[in-house]
Amino acid sequence: MKTNVTTFATAQFRLLSDDQMDSIFLGALEILEGTGTKVLEAEARALLLEAGAHVEGEMARLPGGLVKEMLSSVPSRIAVADRDGRRTLLLESNRLHFGTGSDCPFILDSETGQRRLFVKKDLEDAARVVDACDNLDFHMSLGLMSGVPSHSYDRHQAATMLRNTVKPLCLTAMSRQGLSDIVEVYYLLCGGRASFEVNPRFIVYLEPTTPLLHSKAALEKLLFAAERRIPAIYTPCPMLGATAPVTLAGGLVLALAEFLAGMVVSQLKRRGAPLILGGVISPMDMRTTILTYGSPELHLLSAAITGIAHWLRVPVFSTAGCTDSKVLDEQAAVEAALSIMAAGLSGANLIHDVGFLESALIGSPEMVVMSDEIIGMVKRFLSGVRVNEETLALDVIKEVGPGGNFLAHDLTVRNLRKELWFPRLMDRTRYSAWQAAGSKTLGDRVRERVARILATHTVPPLPQEVEHAIEKMLANADGEAAAAQTDLV
């Protein structure tokens, strides 16, 4: 037995050196101190002013010392529970979790092949598909629900997701009121506000407006999340060459500066508020003006921001399982696979947008299921090679000897499932067997799996009192939406 050995058990990579990350961080501090950022919410400005920031009108300049002080209070570890209270998302160190993205306006209808708006049934189906996928750890809505009042769609989406998957949710909210309505339902589910704060069961997704603008709505939700200890992602989305410098390092500086400004506000509101660093940083394709979701730069920058988050010791939100392709084709498979591998190797904590087609305009359950298979392969790659006395198998090799075989040996029986990955959708049959089964492509098998899930997979119902609370929330929100529409007329 060897002792005092450094073991590299899993595969990973690191994109930036400490010196490079330090330069990016210092660059972000220089932007916050020298240029400043626009803060469109009064309470946030008051908190910054009281803490020593220079506030003039809506512009705020944040001293580097204040940023560093507040950064020290951000939790390095956030645990999020599923619907039943099991702490299944542990956002820490290099621990990986994969999930869908949210709010795509369109779905590719699996029956007609047509691109159309998401409706409630599609969101129900998406949640059930994610619930059935072993390699997906959390769920975002995938689609943007149409057919409900625009002023209350966020509550309808949250209710649909909560009813149709047990997995932890990452939610969007239109406003502070929408977020408040949603968390009240969770308080009932959890047994009260205190229980939720100890064991939160969803994350809220928030965005500043690049470059360097923090809207009233985003900050109101950020302050409310901090006050109630709702884990929050604050995700800048710079477009290189459009809303951000075309250089990759410049995009990182800008994104980090925007996150740090939001971080300071959240920590001034409540020290220790759980916050997750995000950043969807990608080029604008100058030929089409589209923010690309399959470009190598997006995944390079996602890996870079992950490294910075680890360096700062804060949890991180990343991107993978997405494509610029309009359909589930070879391009979609290539871009999904490369992005999932890059995100996995980087050690990101929450990896979202699994299931996105057409640069985040189409949400596809088929893309979710195909990516679930790819994630399984990547997880096996990332698990590395176990090297110990049993796995070296010296005695077994000697026992079997030249010309023998290991098929029926105890070592094979004991380690088969531990060592080897078995696909659900990838085909490994002989050609004749593949022909006899219908010569099906991966796309055919993916569509069949989605159909099987929707035909057979069930999710336990919510407690009756929670259902009643959801119905009341939706009725009140729809009533407020109708009143708002009347006022506009």
Main traits of this protein?
489 residues, alpha/beta, TIM Barrel, four-stranded mixed sheet, 18 helices, 20 strands
Overall description:
The chain is of the alpha/beta class. The protein has helices at about 20-35, 40-50, 65-70, 120-130, 155-165, 175-190, 195-200, 215-230, 250-270, 295-310, 330-345, 365-380, 390, 395-400, 410-420, 430-435, 440-455, 465-489; strands at about 35-40, 55, 60, 80, 85-90, 95-100, 105-110, 115, 170, 200-205, 215, 230-235, 240, 275, 280-285, 290, 315-320, 350-355, 355, 360-365. A 4-stranded mixed beta sheet has the order 2-3-1-11. Strand 2 (about 55) and strand 3 (about 60) form a beta hairpin. The longest helix is centred in the C-terminal third of the chain and has 25 residues, at about 465-489. It is globular.
